[in-house]
Recover the amino acids of this structure.
């Protein structure tokens, strides 16, 4: 098995200022690296999903502010970059959080010192994400081990996941997939059911690619087949990621997550969500209030893949001109979530459950601290 | 609006013996008609899904026996054809039912009279299906009207469906989609959410094509988005078809149906199944005992569509060699079903509910009749 951990989805170029990211639109058929030189290019990479995954989007946004500060550290220029970057995608919590953090770290500095400080803060966000990934992986691996024990020691432990939550989605080794990698490294035999994740195929294209490289056994299924597998108890636990989780534990994640949670609950199979704390929106209690991005219907009407010619082509699936709609996320109510795997441990998916792990973030906790 | 009803998915060729079917693999990008001349060709068309939809598969199987009897009416030849045809696809109930019916109608005849009798019985099966379609459409339209009234008369009534259950799936105007057509003809304003139905895109490719031709407004969504729409109450009722329904009302249907039923139940939105009685398997009570076809994983690993070149191409979605699995159906437990729309009316999804409409098919009913 390839040891996961040396690979990164974002890094600084050799010149120390250009930002390199893997162009995830080209995977799994080609490995291409982009160089981002401006905040507009960073925003474009986020919007067009060259980079995706809430933590990686956050990191890209953070470096986007640094690129802006390098080009023009004046207040108005940073303000423009802030708006441009935050508007790139609306649902994930990490983007606004990371942009605000870098802006906050440099706003009080004299303009000539802002660029260096912004790069430093972006790097700190990335390093913190690496540590968060590692901790989530460890807590998640315990849950995988426990699921294996509940299955009477039968191996492989059967994990089902949705979308991509691996090292391509973060700056470290991932969130839900970090748990898979950690469990595999601990010697637990695993098999992962990978939902293809229409419309953009992050499961079929990215998770399958990551797991194949890591040597973790997996099988790709269509999104609609997960219910069947859960009903027939071919799954020991479900672990997914999140783009934004409410203070009460409601989980916005890739479209199609909510039906997985319903099917897991119907068959009493644990449904866990890996939640780095920057994905928690402490200002929203009711997950149904999380804004749900609607993307270009063309993503539904067509799909890209490798043609027999050896070229990647987009093929249209619907009749010419047929209308389509493309909500990118759905919300799984906290009541369907068995637990939230944070870097501080596994929380019950309730306000008090999260508050117990993050007392400084909740009003009651703040009072206790005061 | 195009009046639906003149179009047929299967018919006898001008020579009176060759069987014409629409090659549904080519839709929506091309309209091609195949001519079937042997039972083996009929079985191949079923297996390769040139024809699909449980009632149309049944009709094709019936004509397959007729083609076999025309070629060689001897007992052993008919027996070979029977096995070949029944083995073409395992889950749908109509195929074995229709083949058995034609075999039964000709088995006692002297061989020279078998071919004509087989064609006549196949034609009867088709005509009965047309009548069943019409009745199901009428009963289903009442449910759509009722859903509109429950919505306070708000129009359009929002219907969600899965896979294809229109005139391409039957010999008449369809099952679940027949209800949509009938409601539209009664002047009810409708909008249909069409799930694309991976892996073979019968929603995006066939239902969208049918509805576009009929002038019924629709929007294509990915399968995983249906839960979101149901949760947000953007749907007034769900109507799907079935490939085999158990005597207790459990519904085997296209993979991805079960999660729809769970999501409908979670939001208390009616979930109806259009069930022609030949799709009911009176010998199976527990739907989980219905055999679930596993098809070629290549159907999951790749998808066909119209390339910019104007050619239909199959593009690979997964990394080279990535394993995939392809269950074609799932089973929705009767408890999630609001009602079974049969040609005799809407039954509760229970043994007694079905028995009340089909007393001659159930032991208790048989006793009452005796």
């Amino acid at each position: 098995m390839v040891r996961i951990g040396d690979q990164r989805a974002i890094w600084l170029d050799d010149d120390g200022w250009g930002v390199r990211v893997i162009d995830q639109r080209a995977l799994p058929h080609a490995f291409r690296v982009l160089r981002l030189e401006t905040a507009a290019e960073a925003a474009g990479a986020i919007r067009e999903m060259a980079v995706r995954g809430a933590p990686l989007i956050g990191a890209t946004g953070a470096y986007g502010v640094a690129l802006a500060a390098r080009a023009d550290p004046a207040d108005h220029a940073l303000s423009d970059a802030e708006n441009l970057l935050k508007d790139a995608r609306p649902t994930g919590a990490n983007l606004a959080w990371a942009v605000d953090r870098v802006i906050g770290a440099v706003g009080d500095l004299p303009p000539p010192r802002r660029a260096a400080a912004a790069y430093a803060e972006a790097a700190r966000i990335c390093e913190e994400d690496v540590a968060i990934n590692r901790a989530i992986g460890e807590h998640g691996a315990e849950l995988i081990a426990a699921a294996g024990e509940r299955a009477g020691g039968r191996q492989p432990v059967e994990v089902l996941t949705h979308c991509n939550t691996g090292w391509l989605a973060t700056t470290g080794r991932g969130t839900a997939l970090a748990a898979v990698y950690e469990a595999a490294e601990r010697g637990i035999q695993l098999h992962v059911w990978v939902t293809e994740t229409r419309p953009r195929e992050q499961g079929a294209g990215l998770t399958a690619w990551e797991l194949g490289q890591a040597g973790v056994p997996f099988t790709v299924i269509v999104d609609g087949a997960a219910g069947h597998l859960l009903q027939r108890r071919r799954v020991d636990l479900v672990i997914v990621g999140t783009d934004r989780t409410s203070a009460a534990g409601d989980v916005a994640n890739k479209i199609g997550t909510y039906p997985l949670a319903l099917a897991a609950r119907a068959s009493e199979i644990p449904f866990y969500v890996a939640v780095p704390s920057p994905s928690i929106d402490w200002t929203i209690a009711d997950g149904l209030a999380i804004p749900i991005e609607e993307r270009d219907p063309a993503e539904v009407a067509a799909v890209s893949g490798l043609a027999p010619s050896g070229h990647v082509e987009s093929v249209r699936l619907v009749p010419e001109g047929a209308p389509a709609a493309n909500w990118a996320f759905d919300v799984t109510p906290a009541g369907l979530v068995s637990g939230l795997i944070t870097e501080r441990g596994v929380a019950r998916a309730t306000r008090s459950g999260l508050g117990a792990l993050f007392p400084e973030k909740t009003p009651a906790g703040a009072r206790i601290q005061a």
In short: The CA atoms of residues 275 and 342 of chain A lie 5 Å apart. The first strand of chain A starts at residue 10 and ends at 12.
